[in-house]
Amino acid sequence: MTAAPMIELWRGGMLESEHHGHAVIYGPGGVEMAWGDPNAVIFPRSSVKMIQALPLIESGASEAAGLTERQLALACASHSGEARHREAVADWLAMLGLSDDDLRCGAHMPRDPAEKKRLICSDSTPCQMHNNCSGKHAGFLTLNRHLGGGSEYVDVMHPVQKAVKSAFEEVTGETSPGFGIDGCSAPNFATSVTGLARAMQFFAAAKPGGGLRENAAARLAQAMGRYPEMVAGDGRACTDLMRAMGGRVAVKTGAEAVFVAILPEQQRGIALKIVDGATRASEAAITALLLRLGALEHSHPVVERLLTGSQRNWRGLITGELRLAPGFG
Amino acid sequence: MTAAPMIELWRGGMLESEHHGHAVIYGPGGVEMAWGDPNAVIFPRSSVKMIQALPLIESGASEAAGLTERQLALACASHSGEARHREAVADWLAMLGLSDDDLRCGAHMPRDPAEKKRLICSDSTPCQMHNNCSGKHAGFLTLNRHLGGGSEYVDVMHPVQKAVKSAFEEVTGETSPGFGIDGCSAPNFATSVTGLARAMQFFAAAKPGGGLRENAAARLAQAMGRYPEMVAGDGRACTDLMRAMGGRVAVKTGAEAVFVAILPEQQRGIALKIVDGATRASEAAITALLLRLGALEHSHPVVERLLTGSQRNWRGLITGELRLAPGFG
């Protein structure tokens, strides 16, 4: 089945660009709503960092290292490389007796304007701690110390990644058809949009007291909602959407336009993928579905910014707007 | 008719994202090849700057102001705001007895890393001359001085924009169904992909001695090919593609993934639009069509960078590649 029209960009009263995708809302009874092809196989990319963090808690590594809830949120983050993110990762690595050199995520210029300015104007190069995935990797290193694995923890055959794959296939309810190498060099396992939504529903229904995995899932979703600034950063969609929902819903973006949501009060999970990989569309689409489920208020400023607001040019003139495609949202 | 699959992004041996679009190759006899819907109406955005510059020459304004070929190339540019671009616009405005305040394009941070660093590290704000469209606007101001119009030259009813619309509809061979406000505040007239390709074929077939419009079109296409660094900037697709083809072909990108090409030796024009607005796909698609027509060598490094090369992550590891969708290119 083909992707469904989801988000449109209009200019001068005419359709200029359009984004198609796949989306699934998964509830206690299974798939409740689907657009596009619910069986489409996708790479979830960074949208599954909370799944990749499950073994960190289940193994006892988190407790042994005395990780805080704030650190658990950072383990699920695609952060902006703000000073608070870099410093939190630096403290975490120091606590493990490790350094930036032990990371395998690679270095890239942070998204945060202040930190970027500091680096550029001092002719400094970013370190691996600036990588948006460095919190996830600090989690991998914490699990690795507990498992006693080798230094190349991003190898798909490494105990850390084997534990991640096992947890991933169990919560998605599917055998992954394969994996790709992610931007941060870790394996990223493929699944269907339905599998991803099923996994988010598991997180949404998980109870703190309910068994090893349920407890881990509940703690991670709660950590994301309580420390939204650690999951992305100021002005980012994930952070602002979680703040707008008072931390009662956990959301996470992934590269190439994946977005997921965990709604504990409704015991629902959402997963969507815009097939062209456009983040502007995945952010608008998840906003529309959160509005549909009543988890987000239409009146909140973040809704105007990500979906309903006017598009403006360099002089502030209105040039157009985003619209939901007929049949979506 | 719907858009055709054109460019795919593969990761780990699986399709991760895909881009659909419309494309037309127009020759002396009319449409030679088409993908997607050749009648799809699009906003050409900055891909039509050479059309918007036709009245500048046809009116005699260019000659009266003594514009150089380098300035004509700049009038067709979406430049990176490099020092040479800003200085060329500053000199141009000074020659007209005008200043940055007379521009109506708005200001934005330049794309050029060196100029951006200079501004950021000196806590300076960009001026309108940094706007990627400032060369086009300098052309508008030059035409405006010749026509004696008012200061608001981006108003759709202003003599400058009326002249642009007239030229636009004549070279596209279509009555424009409407216009939108572009990022630089100028009206951007809509046309079909075929109309845009027809216009590019007119430029390709135009002879320097062949009448007022033909002469203007030939000079503009020649100026773009001779000063590719003024049309975009170092490392940009337009500049590198024109350099790779020895200036014998003029190409131009437009926002929301439009790309056009003028091939004088073949008297052919190309126009394409990726419906989701992704530049990575429009750059790959125009590269594929230039290869198809034999205008570009497969062995040139720019082909590897824009189309055939591996996608790598922050550690330089290969993560995947772009592929042409079946039936395209």
From TrEMBL, chains A, B:
Q: According to its UniProt record, what is one Pfam family this protein matches? A: Asparaginase_II
Q: Which InterPro entries match?
A: Asparaginase_II
Q: What is this protein called?
A: Asparaginase
Tell me the organism: Thioclava pacifica DSM 10166
